Amino acid sequence: MHSEIDFGKIELAEAPPAGEPARQQYFMERLREVVEERSRKYGRPLTACIQTFGCQMNAKDSEKLLGILLQAGFTASEDEASDFVLYNTCTVRDNANQRVYGRLGYLNSLKKKNPHMTIALCGCMMQEPSVVEKIKKSYRFVDLVFGTHNIFRLAELLYRCYTEKRMVVDVWGGTEQIVENLPSRRKYSFKCGVNIMYGCNNFCSYCIVPYVRGRERSREPEDILAEIRALAADGVVEVMLLGQNVNSYGKTLDTPMTFAALLRQVAEIPGIERIRFMTSHPKDLSDELIGVMRDCPKICRHLHLPLQSGSSRILKKMNRVYDKEQYLALAKKIKGEIPDLSLTTDIIVGFPGETEEDFEETMDVVRRVRFDSAFTFIYSKRTGTPAAAMEDQVPEEIVKPRFERLLKEVQRISAEVCGKDVGKTMTALVEGMDTHDPALVTGRLSNNIMVHFPGDASDIGKLIPVLLTESKGFYYMGKRLP
Ligand code: SAH
Ligand code: SF4
Ligand code: F3S
Question: Whose CA is nearest to atom 1 of ligand 1?
Answer without folding.
Answer: 244
